[in-house]
């Protein structure tokens, strides 16, 4: 069996005015992030483009935790 592998660039996500912007469409604020916020493998959902993204948040900095 072959596995379908699609690679995307992983890295730091955009946080604007304390809100995580959707990594796919960049139009919607999907999650409020404070400087002391931490989370691992958190799934965020964008209602505009209907995508789910798994993120890690370390001290207010957001990173994609899974690349597809």
How are the strands ordered across the major sheet?
1-2-3
Q: Largest sheet, if any?
A: 3 strands, antiparallel
- Estimated helix fraction: under 10%
The share of residues in extended strands comes to: 35-45%
End-to-end separation = 18 Å
Provide the succession of SSEs: EEEEEE
Give the helices and strands, then pairings.
Elements (H helix, E strand, L loop, with lengths): L14 E2 L2 E3 L7 E4 L6 E7 L6 E7 L2 E4 L4
Antiparallel strand pairs: 1-2, 2-3, 4-5, 5-6
Care to describe what's here?
With 68 residues, this protein is an all-beta fold. It is 0% helix and 40% strand. It contains no helices and 6 strands. Strands 1-2-3 form a 3-stranded antiparallel sheet, with no helix packed on it. Strands 4-5-6 form a 3-stranded antiparallel sheet, with no helix packed on it. A hairpin with a 7-residue loop joins strand 2 (19-21) and strand 3.
Please tag this protein with its features:
68 residues; three-stranded antiparallel sheet; 40% strand; disordered N terminus; mainly beta; 0% helix
Structure summary:
The chain has no helices and 6 strands. The protein has 68 residues and is mainly beta.
């Amino acid at each position: 069996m072959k596995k379908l592998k699609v690679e995307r660039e992983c890295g730091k996500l955009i946080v604007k005015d304390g809100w995580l912007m959707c990594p796919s469409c960049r139009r919607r604020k999907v999650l409020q992030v404070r400087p002391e916020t931490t989370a691992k493998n958190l799934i965020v959902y964008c209602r505009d483009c209907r995508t789910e993204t798994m993120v890690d948040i370390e001290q207010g900095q957001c990173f994609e935790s899974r690349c597809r």
